[in-house]
Write a structure and sequence with these properties.
By secondary structure, the chain is an alpha+beta fold. It has three helices and nine strands; from the N terminus they run αββββαββαβββ.
């Protein structure tokens, strides 16, 4: 009998969100692992390579503020650089203690390049204040010098 891993809950929830928002979608798992998965997704308007990664809990103990740190190996970064020639998205699953309060953030290709390749980072923290419309990725210097990310649909 197969056991359900924690990652299955996060990646399954993210796929459910994608499928519920686009019924004309087909996908193929390209590569999977415990902390990240790569999917080829075909919609009625475009093909995407989607790199998914999750964090199971927030770094912040403050109820008005949530943050998650995502770390990437050099192998991950090299793979992401290869995908940058394709229609590429990064889907970050930001877990919370109550799973149904977890959040999904979609980074566009140019946002991923800015964070990982141009800034030459191997990790970044994404954060959001309660009721704030945007997520933020610190580019050095805290919230004042951050990349604002508005969560957007895949298409």
């Amino acid at each position: 009998m197969a056991r359900v891993a924690q990652a299955d809950f996060y990646f399954g929830a993210a796929l459910s969100i994608l499928f519920n928002n686009n019924h004309n979608m087909k996908l193929a798992l390209v590569e999977g692992g415990e902390d990240r998965r790569i999917y080829d997704i075909l919609t009625n308007t475009a093909n995407y390579k989607v790199y998914m990664k999750y964090r199971s809990k927030t770094n912040s103990g403050d109820e008005k503020y949530s943050s998650w740190q995502f770390t990437f190996s050099q192998e991950d970064i090299n793979e992401i650089k290869e995908f940058s020639n394709e229609n590429f998205k990064m889907l970050l699953i930001c877990g919370k203690p109550k799973l149904n309060e977890s959040e999904v953030v979609i980074l566009q290709d140019d946002e991923v390049k800015l964070c990982l390749t141009e800034a030459n980072k191997k990790h970044f923290t994404i954060s959001r204040r309660k009721n704030e419309k945007y997520y933020r990725i610190s580019m050095g210097g805290g919230r004042d010098n951050s990349l604002q990310i508005k969560s957007k649909p895949l298409d």
